[in-house]
């Protein structure tokens, strides 16, 4: 793998780590439940992107499957949390 690609992967992972730290701060200090739900959704998204970057770096397809599962569970949990925040119950 070339030096440019390795540097780009390292830079991307560093940016995602910094963004995830800022999202965790919002998750902890969020003034409302809606802020916490959106921060948790963004944290799932960052985890998916990190898995995709690692897949490119390690040249392994297993990471793509893990990223797909993270995206699936992130969407379902975000929908359930949004419904709970709006109505106070998940199952009607």
Fill in the keyword field for this structure.
86% helix, 3 helices, single chain, 92 residues, mainly alpha
Q: How would you sum up this structure, described in words?
A:
By secondary structure, this protein is mainly alpha-helical. It has one domain (3-87). Helix content is 86%, strand content 0%. The chain contains 3 helices and no strands. It has helices at residues 3-29, 33-58, 62-87. Helix 1 packs antiparallel against helix 2 and helix 2 (33-58) packs antiparallel against helix 3 (62-87). One of its GO terms (molecular function) is sodium:proton antiporter activity. It comes from Panacagrimonas perspica. The chain crosses the membrane at residues 6-25, 37-56, 62-86. One of its GO terms (cellular component) is plasma membrane. Keywords: Antiport, Cell membrane, Ion transport, Membrane, Transmembrane, Transmembrane helix, Transport.
Number of helices: 3
The radius of gyration over CA amounts to: 16 Å
Compute the number of strand runs. Answer: 0
Percent of residues in helices: over 70%
The string of secondary-structure elements, in order, is HHH
Major sheet details:
none
Give the distance, in angstroms, between the N- and C-terminal Cα atoms. Answer: 52 Å
| Low-pLDDT ranges | none
Average pLDDT, to the nearest integer?
88
Secondary structure category: mainly alpha
> How many domains comprise the coordinates?
1
């Amino acid at each position: 793998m070339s030096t440019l690609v390795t540097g780009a992967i390292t830079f991307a992972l560093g940016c995602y780590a910094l963004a995830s730290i800022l999202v965790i701060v919002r998750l902890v200090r969020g003034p409302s439940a809606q802020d916490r739900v959106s921060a948790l959704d963004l944290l799932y998204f960052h985890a998916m992107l990190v898995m995709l970057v690692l897949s490119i770096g390690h040249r392994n397809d297993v990471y793509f499957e893990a990223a797909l599962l993270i995206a699936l569970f992130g969407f379902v949990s975000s929908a359930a949390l949004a419904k709970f925040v709006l109505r106070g119950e998940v199952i009607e």
